[in-house]
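Record 1 of the preview.
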Amino acid sequence: MTVVLDTNVLLVSLPSRSPFHVIYRAIIDRRLSICVTNETLSEYEEQISSRIGIHRSEVQLRELLNLPNVLLIDVYYNWQLIEADKDDNKFVDCAIAGGADYLVTNDRHYDILKTIDFPKIAVIKAEEFVRLLSENSE
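->
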């Protein structure tokens, strides 16, 4: 399964005591592939470093980027599907260009995607995605 993680989901999946840590663990264990772009990586780095410090964020991102299931995607078209928070479009474009099965987010701005027929993007909340992961591992 291939996904795009919105920054809010990546952040809550990092702490080992988080109920969402199974998402990060699935990436590390190579049970899940994640699509990233230079833009999404920049946001990850900025947000992680502001919360846990620059050194730890560099280590965390280096660990991710060295995995074969972390796919660096080139986006050739900007769909501009989200008007409410245009900054979220980088994750949408990554999901489309990478052919992701899901865009995992807890952000309400992505709800608009459920009303768009083309391109179709499956948006799923982190809690729901954790359930999906546990069902697939059984």
